[in-house]
Structure formats: structure tokens, C-alpha cells
């Protein structure tokens, strides 16, 4: 796969661009920029560099021989990242092994990190309303958890426990902030993907709430008809035969 980047070449940046050439980048296109805004009137050149994406080998070494590099390219929150960008993200992260039954984090705890499951399965214990207790959800390879506290800076909404022996790619918020400060594409792509995923989840939540409210309204109406029929001696009432006799 071929990857691209843009660089502005001026007398001050020639040395840094030459370093890119030594790293395997090659010029693809160039555009002369207007130099009228410079004190010496020297124009700059915008060049588009291209290079074959050869990072998978290095990336595999960082993840470990038993983890497929291709797995990261299939993680929705990492969609669109080149191997070079994934390598940059892995460089600020930690690959962590967790034994089965070990608690990864507890509900209401503070730990600003985003975890990608490389191997194994994780149980998320979610609180439910009223007296229903908790709900258990199991997630596996390519799934991500910890995103609510990672992006909001709050506490975890669930308790995460290793359902099997697991391998995690743990992305710390501090390292992510460093990438943002440096305007690295890896950070922007991750944030954009997260926004899209959270948007879908909000829509799903809206649909779920609408369904719950409709069920409550149907139940209220059914109970009203039941009371009416009992008061008039009409006997039992079946909600599915709402408009029948």
C-alpha cells in the first residue's frame, strides 16, 4: 500500500525534508507557493511525498509474534489509519496480558485509557435501573472498551473483568494528548472514528428509549381498559385483542 504526506519546502526546512528522503519517501507532485508574504520574497514549494507502507513488520514486533497486525486494521475505532499511523499509536501504548478472572478496572474508578482487545474476551458488568441489579455483556477481539472515561475524563461506567486470558492494547490518554498536540493524523482519525461510533450509539439509545416509552404507554392504556372492563363486568382482558369484543 502507498501512503502520502505533504511538506512545505523552504530554505529553513530543506534539511528535514532530506531526512524524509533518506527514510524512503519520494516526491510525487509539487506546487510553488506565493512568496510575497516572506521578508526576502523567496517562494516555498509544497510537495506531496509518497512511500510504500512497510511498517507491518515493525508493528508486528511491537505487538508480539502471536498477534496479527491485520487485526488492528479491522478495529472500527482505528479505521483508516495507515500502518505507519498504527505504529505511531502502538509506540505510545502498552500491550498488556491479563489472566482469566482478573478485574481490569472497577465501576466508578478513574483510569483514562482506551483498550483494544487483541486476544480473548472481556466481561463488562453494567448497572441497570431500579432493582434489576447488573447486566453482563461479553466482548471479544477487535472490540474497544474504556472509551467513555477516555474521552470524557470521568469515571468508568462499568466493571471490566477478563473472561479468558486476554491481550490488550492499552492507549493512555496522556500519550493520545501528545499526538493531538503534535497534530498527528493518527490522533485525529481515532477521535473522528470515536465520534462516529458514539453518534451511532446515541441514536441506538434514542431508539431504545422511544421503544421503552411506547411500551409503557401501551401498558398504561391496557391497564385502563382492563379496569374499565372489570368495572362493567366484562371479564378478563387480553392486550393483544385491544380493539376486539
Structure description:
- It is built from 7 helices and 11 strands.
- With 245 residues, the chain is an alpha+beta fold.
- The chain has 2 domains: 1-52, Alpha-Beta Plaits (2-Layer Sandwich); 54-222, Jelly Rolls (Sandwich), CATH 2.60.120.10.
- The strands form 3 sheets. A 4-stranded antiparallel sheet has the order 4-11-6-9. A 4-stranded antiparallel sheet has the order 5-10-7-8, with no helix packed on it. It has a 3-stranded antiparallel sheet with strand order 1-3-2, with helices on one face.
- Strand 7 and strand 8 form a beta hairpin.
- The N and C termini lie far apart (69 Å).
- Residues 237-245 have low confidence and may be disordered.
The total beta strand count reads: 11
Strand content: 25-35%
Order of helices and strands: EHEEHHHEEEEEEHEEHH
The largest β sheet comes out as: 4 strands, antiparallel
CATH class of the largest domain: Mainly Beta
Q: Kindly report the spatial arrangement of strands forming the biggest sheet.
A: 4-11-6-9
Shape: elongated
CATH names the topology of the largest domain as Jelly Rolls
Name the structural class. alpha+beta
Spans with pLDDT under 50 lasting ≥5 residues?
237-245
- CATH hierarchy: architecture of the largest domain: Sandwich
Q: How far is it from the N-terminal to the C-terminal residue, by CA?
A: 69 Å
Amino acid at each position: 500500500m502507498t501512503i502520502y504526506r505533504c511538506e512545505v519546502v523552504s530554505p529553513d526546512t530543506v534539511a528535514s525534508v532530506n531526512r524524509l528522503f533518506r527514510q524512503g519517501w519520494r516526491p510525487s507532485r509539487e506546487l510553488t507557493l506565493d512568496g510575497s508574504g516572506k521578508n526576502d520574497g523567496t517562494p516555498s514549494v509544497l510537495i506531496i511525498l509518497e512511500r510504500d507502507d512497510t511498517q507491518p513488520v515493525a508493528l508486528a514486533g511491537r505487538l508480539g509474534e502471536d498477534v496479527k497486525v491485520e487485526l488492528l486494521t479491522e478495529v472500527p475505532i482505528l479505521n483508516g489509519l495507515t500502518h505507519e499511523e498504527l505504529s505511531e499509536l502502538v509506540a505510545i501504548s502498552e500491550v498488556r496480558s491479563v489472566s482469566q478472572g482478573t478485574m481490569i478496572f472497577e465501576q466508578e474508578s478513574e483510569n483514562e485509557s482506551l483498550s483494544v482487545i487483541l486476544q480473548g474476551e472481556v466481561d463488562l458488568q453494567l448497572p441497570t435501573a431500579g432493582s434489576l441489579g447488573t447486566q453482563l455483556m461479553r466482548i471479544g477481539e477487535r472490540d474497544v472498551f474504556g472509551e467513555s472515561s477516555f474521552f470524557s475524563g470521568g469515571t468508568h461506567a462499568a466493571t471490566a473483568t477478563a473472561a479468558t486470558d486476554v491481550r490488550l492494547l492499552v492507549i493512555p490518554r496522556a500519550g493520545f494528548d501528545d499526538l493531538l498536540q503534535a497534530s498527528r493524523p493518527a490522533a485525529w482519525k481515532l477521535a473522528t472514528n470515536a465520534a462516529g461510533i458514539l453518534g451511532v450509539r446515541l441514536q441506538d439509545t434514542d431508539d431504545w428509549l422511544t421503544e421503552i416509552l411506547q411500551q409503557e404507554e401501551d401498558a398504561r392504556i391496557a391497564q385502563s381498559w382492563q379496569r374499565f372492563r372489570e368495572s362493567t363486568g366484562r371479564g378478563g382482558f387480553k392486550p393483544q385483542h385491544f380493539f376486539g369484543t
